[in-house]
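Page 37, continued from 36.
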């Protein structure tokens, strides 16, 4: 009897693997893939090959507003009009983990509202909701004619930026989203349809100059998803964002961000199937003798401390990179990245640990220190590439769910406590903070940067009970543009350090030439870590 049950379950699983999983992708410009370029995919090694069609994945789409681009039925999944959407990386990751066929249905248009265009009861403007229903029904009917077995597996939704410009739509976003999802499930006769709502990225310029409005939309999204057992909120503020002119800030993810955006949806979906990425290995053998003193270095900051554009695959062609790619079991490493999106379970061997095969300056920083320092060392890293300096301050901002200070303080305390529990005397040798890159491009944030950094330093020392804790403020050359150059932010941060004997201002000089404003590439991140360590060593 037991053997029969096993055989029946196996047969059912095999049959289910032949059912095509149909995923809906819908929303506005950051779902379309605006300001991405298919020719740029090759710059990002983890996503190599996604510029080519995925012949085994069906794709049906209607994109745009006035002049719509249509697939007119099912085609192979591929970039459309030279633009990269999140469906490309989503499909590749999902099909690598499940045996069932995958199909993508995408309806998206930039500059559309949930309160109007996507309104299921009274659609206005470009009437996106009726278009979504029409497209889905026609595509599914085609599968029926082909006798393809399928089921609607999930909706990936990224929208909301335009609703924040309308007071009524902004205030009612949560209720409107809940209504939209209820109507879609009803109209598609899919009451169990899972929904994945993508966070509006706080790394964009709107995450700065429209912070209260972005916060209001995020609260609506979180209210709707928390009340819906089949919906979940998917963080995206840690992904890459396009570099724009003239100061570097942009409204859209661009190529890298779109590809990472798709991985976020795939990870959320696969986790619901019990197919999440396996946990990273922790240190199997503790490298430091019990009772020894350990020097703990805390690395903290934003885009370049996180390592937004530093890829493991490029280490082999970077001087000294091959050694950095290998786990260093002599240096314990723990981390919280992307504002807590990606965290270590415990101490790991120091090595590349970022999402999307990225790494930060910690690799070359620790390797350089270890050559000179005889005391055992440990590295703890806390970053959020989608943050601005105000998010790190004790006071925070109106966008309260972006406040990082409590989590940062807890992370430092936990790092010290864990080492002490292992029998070590701990010396917090310094906090190395790479000053926010985006802040340098936006006049109000550039003006407030020195005072905000000073507040962070002062409160951290007080709360940790370490009045002489050394802070190293690393600052790359700030944005050079007439719109912000009347504020000498280098001098402002230097003044903070000059007034504080235990604060060191490190102006990054000699950085290898970089192809983009604000962000530092693989070679530059390796150089930055080594340079920071040399500055720390010079002041020991």
């Amino acid at each position: 009897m037991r053997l029969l049950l096993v055989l029946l379950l196996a047969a059912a699983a095999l049959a289910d693997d032949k059912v095509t999983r149909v995923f809906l992708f819908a929303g506005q410009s950051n779902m379309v893939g605006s300001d991405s370029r298919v020719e740029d995919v090759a710059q990002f090694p983890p996503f190599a090959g996604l510029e080519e069609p995925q012949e085994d994945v069906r794709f049906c789409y209607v994109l745009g507003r006035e002049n719509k681009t249509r697939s007119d039925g099912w085609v192979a999944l591929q970039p459309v009009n030279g633009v990269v959407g999140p469906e490309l990386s989503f499909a590749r990751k999902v099909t690598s983990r499940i045996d069932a066929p995958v199909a993508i249905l995408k309806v998206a248009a930039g500059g559309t509202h949930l309160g109007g265009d996507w309104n299921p009861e009274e659609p206005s403007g470009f009437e996106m909701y009726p278009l979504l229903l029409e497209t889905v029904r026609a595509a599914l009917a085609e599968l029926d004619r082909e006798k393809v077995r399928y089921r609607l597996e999930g909706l990936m939704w990224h929208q909301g930026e335009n609703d924040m410009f309308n007071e009524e739509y902004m205030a009612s976003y949560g209720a409107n989203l809940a209504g939209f999802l209820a109507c879609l499930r009803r109209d598609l006769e899919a009451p169990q349809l899972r929904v994945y709502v993508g966070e509006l990225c706080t790394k964009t310029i709107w995450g700065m100059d429209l912070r209260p409005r972005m916060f209001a939309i995020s609260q609506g999204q979180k209210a709707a998803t928390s009340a819906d057992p089949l919906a979940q909120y998917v963080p995206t503020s840690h992904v890459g964002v396009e570099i724009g002119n003239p100061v570097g800030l942009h409204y859209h993810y661009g190529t890298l961000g779109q590809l990472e955006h798709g991985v976020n949806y795939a990870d959320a979906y696969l986790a619901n199937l019990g197919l999440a990425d396996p946990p990273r290995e922790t240190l199997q053998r503790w490298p430091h003798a019990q009772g020894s003193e350990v020097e703990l270095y805390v690395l903290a900051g934003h885009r370049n401390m996180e390592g937004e554009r530093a890829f493991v695959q490029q280490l082999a062609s970077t001087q000294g990179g091959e050694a950095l790619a290998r786990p260093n079991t002599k240096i314990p490493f723990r981390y919280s990245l992307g504002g807590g999106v990606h965290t270590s379970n415990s101490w790991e061997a120091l090595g590349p640990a970022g999402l999307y095969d990225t790494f930060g300056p910690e690799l070359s920083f620790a390797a350089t220190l270890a050559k000179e320092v005889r005391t055992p060392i440990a590295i703890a890293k806390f970053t959020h590439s989608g943050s601005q300096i105000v998010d790190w301050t004790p006071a925070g901002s109106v966008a309260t769910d972006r406040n990082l200070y409590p989590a940062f303080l807890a992370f430092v305390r936990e790092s010290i406590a864990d080492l002490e529990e292992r029998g070590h005397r701990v010396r917090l040798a310094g906090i190395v903070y790479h000053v926010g890159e985006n802040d340098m491009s936006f006049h109000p944030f550039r003006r407030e940067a020195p005072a905000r950094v000073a507040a962070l330093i002062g409160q951290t020392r007080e709360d940790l009970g370490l009045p002489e804790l050394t802070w190293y403020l690393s600052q790359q050359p700030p944005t050079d543009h007439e719109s912000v150059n009347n504020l000498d932010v280098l001098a402002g941060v230097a003044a903070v350090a000059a007034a504080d004997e235990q604060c060191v201002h490190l102006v990054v000089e000699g950085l290898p030439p970089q192809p983009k404003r604000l962000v530092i590439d693989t070679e530059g991140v390796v150089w930055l870590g080594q340079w920071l360590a040399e500055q720390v060593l010079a002041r020991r």
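The mean pLDDT is 96. Flag for discussion at group meeting. The two ends are 72 Å apart (CA to CA).
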